[in-house]
Amino acid sequence: MHKDDKVHKIKGVTKEDKYSDLRELLKRSLEISIRIEAQNQKLLKKFRWMQIASYIRLALIAIPFILALIYLPPLIAHVLDQYNQISSQSSVFPNLSNVFDILK
């Protein structure tokens, strides 16, 4: 018998009891680690979907602006040309430069 065995017997704790407690703690720790890993996997999936949703939101905001930059200048130029044709043909709507000349 070792000195430690005597000490453990005096306290009422044997080595087997000590190791069984340690085994129980290790099992509990392993179970908790498994649950934490499962939660982490769920969180990672949610974060991926959040990233995808943020890219979709960005696209929904950016695409109309890009399309506006592409298609609006020709449309505005066409509308201004029509306005200039109407204003030059009609004597009711004088050119703005003529109005400013009259006001001076």
What does the model show?
With 104 residues, the chain is mostly helical. The protein has one domain. It has 3 helices and no strands. It has helices at residues 3-11, 15-89, 96-103. The protein is rod-shaped and about 115 Å long. The model has no long low-confidence stretch (mean pLDDT 82).
The gist of it:
This protein has three helices and no strands.
Number of strands: 0
H/E series: HHH
Sheet with most strands: none
Overall number of structural domains: 1
Oligomer: single chain
Separation, N- and C-terminal Cα atoms:
120 Å
Strand residues, percent: under 5%
Secondary-structure-derived class:
mainly alpha
Shape: rod-shaped
Q: How many alpha or pi helices?
A: 3
Rg measurement, Å:
41 Å
Helix content: over 70%
Low-confidence stretches: none
Could you tell me the mean pLDDT? Answer: 82
Keywords: Membrane, Transmembrane, Transmembrane helix
Transmembrane segments: 52-72
